[in-house]
Amino acid sequence: MASSSSSSSSSSxxxxxxxxxxxxxxxxxxxxxxxxGEVEDVHDLLPLFNLPKGxxxxxxxxxxxxxxxxxxxxELSSHPCYVHFDxxxxxxxxxxxxxxxxxxVTEVSGIQAKKLFLxxxxxxxxxxxxxIEFRVGALSQKFPVEDFQDVPPCSAKALQLARASSI
Length: 167
Description:
disordered C terminus; nine-stranded antiparallel sheet
């Protein structure tokens, strides 16, 4: 009889624990949605997801983010948009899409990096401590996160950027 009582109180305790965890998760999701709704500049939204502000260029016309699955759409006001990060040239399309998660962006489209003579599409981005990893299909390259803290301006011409960086 004692084991039956112990079993039911244990079951009741685990049920209460599950309810408390569920309530806590709901509160976290609602507070994140509320804080996202207050953010007007997408650059201020990125740190809420543990991503640096400088992942996207300055010239943002509009953005939308789905709180249910993290899918986003960013529209640039200038096109074309080339940005120089250290020794790397990056091209941003007029529309950038993907799925935003804590410390990562997946299913990326609209961002390309120039490697040698080829433009390759960035497919995912992930922050790992002090490094940020850019995935291009099965390949990836890491850079210091600090290189992406400042929001870069767009340039309409890739050649001007390449010449400026070689001076």
